[in-house]
Amino acid sequence: MLEFYKTNENGATLKIEYPEPGCWINAVAPTHEERDFLIEKIGILPEFIKSSLDEEESSHIDYDDDVDQTLVIFDYPNVNDADDPIRKHSGKEKELTLQYMTLPLGVVILKGYIVTICLYENSNVDDLTSGRVKGMDTRLKTRFLLLLLLRISQRYLIYLRQIDRLSSRTEKKLYQTPDNKELIDMLGLEKSLVYFSTSLKSDELTLSKIMRGRQIKLYEDDEDLLEDVMIEIKQAIEMCSIYSGILSSTMDTFANVISNNLNFIMQILTVITIVMAIPDLIFGFYGMNVDGLLLPHAWFPIVLAVVLCLFAVMIFKKKDMFR
To answer: What is the pLDDT of residues 106-141, one digit of tens each?
Structure first.
């Protein structure tokens, strides 16, 4: 899908039918024909398009001197729309853990155009197309890029707070019933934080390169905006580190609790096995055809077995084996 937007003289960004100088081209999962259009008509390097559509591509900045094009790959957080926190199914509400991940978003800056290329639709670009971002101007490429990066960094903070709330809610459930589902949900959140942490660190390096002003020309009006982006990214990195440490310690604590509960259950089963073995041992002796046993009457082995069982129970209870 290709969409074209341009900011007019009144400062309003409108959708246009065909690309014009000073416009923004939004490419979402472009087809082969659309890729050929971007390469042949717009002049984007094929390797820039390929890098932007690679899910495994890490955040970086690349500049080509021959054609005077700059590519900025920036990882953005994403959550599957199908995995809503509460989904209605058959008239009943079912809670599901959100699945978070990070995906690359490519921004190509070239003469006359600024192009965003991504493999999936995302809310960051949607905010720009819907006009929810103030101060956006497709003619000001550097400002456009920084506003997009600021939106992405703010989205990181929003999702990190969601992960923290989901973690707290799942932790309360674990206190009540340590079920496998809650443990798997906690593992999924911990996995999401690992994705966020890795992407945020690479995004920070990319921002540091932008701040040097070598590949992208920086203006005085954009310096404050760039600093805001860097502050948001550093805050997201710190929050991600804190939440990851808390979640990891929580998982370790519940692993120890489950291990202690298992040891307690095995201890109880061992005590029961020992107590139940006493009557079996006594009846085994009196069931053999052996002369000289003490009081070879039917009632004696029963009474002896009961007395020894009670005695064993008292000993185990004294040793605090029934906690």
So the answer is: 999 988 889 999 998 888 888 888 877 887 888 888
Contact call for residues 14 and 8 (beta carbons, < 8 A): yes
Nearest alpha-carbon partner for 235 in 289, 196, 270, 274: 196
Q: Are 236 and 150 in contact (CB under 8 A)?
A: no
Both tokens assigned to 261: 């509960």
Two tokens, residue 175? 């206190």
| Residue 74, φ and ψ in degrees, nearest 5 | -130, 125
CB burial string 242-258: b at 16+ within 10 A, e below: ebbeebeebbeebeeee
Residues 106 and 219 grouped into a single domain = yes
Using pLDDT thresholds of 50, 70 and 90, give the confidence band for residue 216.
confident
User: Is there a single domain that holds both residue 166 and residue 243?
Assistant: yes
DSSP-assigned states of every residue in 52-64: HT-TTPPPEEEEE
3-state secondary structure (DSSP) of residue 124? helix
Q: Which residues contact 274 (CB under 8 A, 6 or more apart)?
A: 312, 316
Return the C-alpha torsion angle 73, 54, 122, 19, nearest 10. 70
Range of the domain at 28: 2-260
At 102, phi and psi to the nearest 5?
A: -125, 145
Give the separation between CA 139 and CA 142, rounded to whole angstroms.
9
User: Please, which residues bridge with residue 117 across strands?
Assistant: 27, 106
Co-location of 157 and 288 in the same domain? no
Q: How many CA atoms lie within 13 A of 118 on its CB side?
A: 22
User: Are 308 and 250 found together in one domain?
Assistant: no
Torsion of CA 161, 162, 166, 171, to 10 degrees: 0
DSSP annotation string for 189-226: HHHHHHHHHHHHHHHHHHHHHHHHTSSS---HHHHHHH
Q: What is the pTM of this model?
A: 0.76
Question: Distances in Å between the alpha carbon of 182 and those of 86, 98, 308?
Answer: 15, 13, 45
> How do 113-118 and 2-7 pair as beta strands?
unpaired
DSSP 42: I
Structure tokens at 60: 């970086």
